[in-house]
Amino acid sequence: MKVESPNEIWVKAASFEERWDTLKGAGEGGQGVGYKVIRKSDQKIAFIKVIQEKSRKNSERRERFYREALAYRSLAGLEVPSLIETNTDRHKDKNITLYIATEFIEGDNMRQWRNRVQKVSLDQAITTTLQLLDTVAQAHAAEILHRDIKPENIIMQDGDVPSPVLVDFGISFDHSRDAQSPLTREGDELGNRFLSLPELNGGSLDKCSPVSDLTLVAGIFFYLFTGRNPTQLKDGQNKLPHQREKSRLFFEGFERSGIRNFFDKAFAYSVSDRYQSPELMRADLLKILSRHLQPAPTDRKERLQRLLENMDFQSNAKRSTRVGQALEWAIRGYGEVRNKSGGSVTAQQVDIKPGAELGYVRIRWDLNGDYQLCTYLWVEAAGGELVWYTSSGEVYRIEMDASLEEWSLETFIDEAVEADMLRILEHKPEDLPAEFAKLHVLRDRLTYSWAAATELSHDLNLPVFVIVHDDTQPMIQREHLLNAVLGERTVQDVILTSFVLLVMKQSVMPRHLQIPEVGDYSAVIHEGRWTRQQRLAANGEAARTRLSELQQAFAVVTPQPL
Question: Rounded CA gap, 393 and 443, in Å?
Answer without folding.
Answer: 9
